[in-house]
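Example for tutorial group B:
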């Protein structure tokens, strides 16, 4: 299992989750930095690096992070979106 960042992160990109991740598996899109315009941008969790520690989940101010098996039905596509980001 891994954690997945879903739709509520799009356009927000609060990096509190990045700061608490012990393995640095949460990444922005290439070329985007904190402070840049976040319109249409989200953070991603690398499923191969995630150690399922759940440290990121409570830090997300928009509640966009879910355990893979708890992703709400309307956001299921984000599981693949996060995985595809690291292929």
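The residue assignment follows.
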């Amino acid at each position: 299992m891994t954690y997945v960042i879903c739709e509520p992160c799009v356009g927000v990109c609060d990096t509190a989750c990045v700061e608490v991740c012990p393995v640095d598996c949460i990444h922005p899109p290439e070329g985007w930095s904190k402070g840049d315009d976040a319109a249409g941008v989200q953070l991603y969790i690398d499923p191969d690096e995630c150690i399922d520690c759940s440290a990121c989940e409570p830090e997300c101010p928009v509640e966009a992070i879910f355990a893979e098996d708890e992703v709400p039905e309307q956001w299921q596509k984000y599981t693949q979106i996060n995985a595809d980001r690291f292929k």
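The longest strand covers residues 3-5. Compare this with the pattern of hydrophobic and polar residues in the output above.
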